[in-house]
Amino acid sequence: MTHMNWKQIALNWADFRAGIKEQWSKINDGHLDAIAGSREKLIGSIRKAYGTSQEQVEKQVTSWTKRVTQQDPP
């Protein structure tokens, strides 16, 4: 389920950028350009920016993904 939800985000990356910056304010446009819809790159960028564990970031990204993909598209 998470994989399919992330596919929706990756395909509509430009639409989700603002929400990512709102959720993780240390992630900037340069990061988002480099991430380019990759969940793994997003997780790596969040870990680097916040010094958070892999497990914690995975939980945050999964929770955010579920929340934004259950709403109406941005």
TrEMBL record:
InterPro entries xrefs: UPF0337_stress_rsp, YjbJ_sf
PANTHER family in the cross-refs: UPF0337 PROTEIN YJBJ
Protein known as: CsbD-like
Source organism (scientific name): Usitatibacter palustris
